[in-house]
What does this fold into?
Amino acid sequence: MKVLFATSEFAPLIKTGGLADVSGSLPLALARLGLDARVLLPAYPAVLRQLGGAALQKPLATIAAHRELPRAQLLGVAGPQGLPLLLVHCPELFDRPGNPYLGPDGRDWPDNDLRFGLFSRVAALLGTPASPIDWHPDVVHCQDWQAGLAPLFLARGLGAGAPPPLQRAASVMTVHNLAYQGIFPAAAVSRLGVPPEGFSIDGAEFYGNLSFLKGGLACADAITTVSPTYAREICTDALGFGLQGLLRARAAVLTGILNGVDTGYWDPAADPLIVQRYDARSLDRKRINKRALQAALGLTMDDETPVLGVISRLVEQKGIDLIAQVLDRIIEQPAQVVIQGLGDRAIEEQLLALARQYPRQLGVRVAFDEPLAHMIEAGADLFLMPSRFEPCGMNQMYSQRYGTLPIVCRTGGLADSVVDCTIESLAAGTATGFSFSPASADALLAAVRRAVDLYRDPAAWLAVQRTAMAVDVSWDASALRYRDVYEQAVLAR
It folds into this structure.
């Protein structure tokens, strides 16, 4: 089976969040199953710089996607671990520094509709007999809104007067976060060549605007999201973001598949970014990483006080404000807290002010620092993840790999991946962390207190650490489920 994996991010070449990690890992897992998986990605400057100039020397094709869109070249190059990459090279739209979606002012690029409209059109074109290359996918797997119009173009045709292709690839639409939908004014419809029947209540029309994601959800042969619980949550009024009716109507083709993680990159026994490597049989070495973390953040050097780590976007969705509300009472346990991330300016300033108030108990780094992220995973005792909603989450699984027990709000993929420490789960040997609900400061504080209590029982703590480290969080099982979805989508097509 041939799969085109259309994504706007791909680790390690270009990353703003978990989408990049999925895109960098899942296609490799699919290849291990024997599928012919190739990744379609915009040719951002950072991507070309890391891959070198070879990709530009022999373009596979030149594509005139639509009269109002600039021409693009399709480049073919071997990516990390030999994974085949297809790059959409259009300097007019993608030759921009930094974040793939935001300008230097922190605002969305005003032509994101054109940028990712072109990307969606190329993804769809490659899934039709009109493809300019001789590799024809059986499935076009579209990630989030940036590729969301591809299923619509495959199902409804690539423009006015152009009928849908009789022989086309099946389409699979994956939602990584329903809150981001790619909504643009209706004027984008003609600029992108969306067929009139595609801009309707049964297509990409959303309250008079064009929604990339709605178009994909309405027209895809199969829909997936990144955890079973989140698949249920997005069908509710609370977390459906206006698309719950459509998702309920398409529930028969909606599947929740929990993400995996790159267990080679996130492995405390082989991690080159941590001070002391260790595994489940040598957890006593973990304290060396703890001391290094305390020293790096200027915290009191203390083996007996638990360190709680946070690596997150500093925004309300992630529950960072809940941590701030009870930080003084967390420190009183006693405990230390280390926070790394970027996000809302007001939250950043609040955390920095608290760090000045508690310089020996709270360390804050307003930055994205990959080596520090690994240091936190290895050096912290607990990991705080109080998200109000979380489609899947990755850090709670990284933390389990490192014997750093997660404390999570019971939502989305957090509910699916963390077994709460209770009397029953401790007795059964299945506990892997701590969970709480609702998403409130008081519930978070109660979970922290339970965790600190367990920390004071070294034998019980060690047992839970080892259980957490033994959880299979690799992509292997999830890749099998995606293969099943692809087969079902092809049959439906």
About this structure: The two ends are 14 Å apart (CA to CA). The chain has 20 helices and 18 strands.
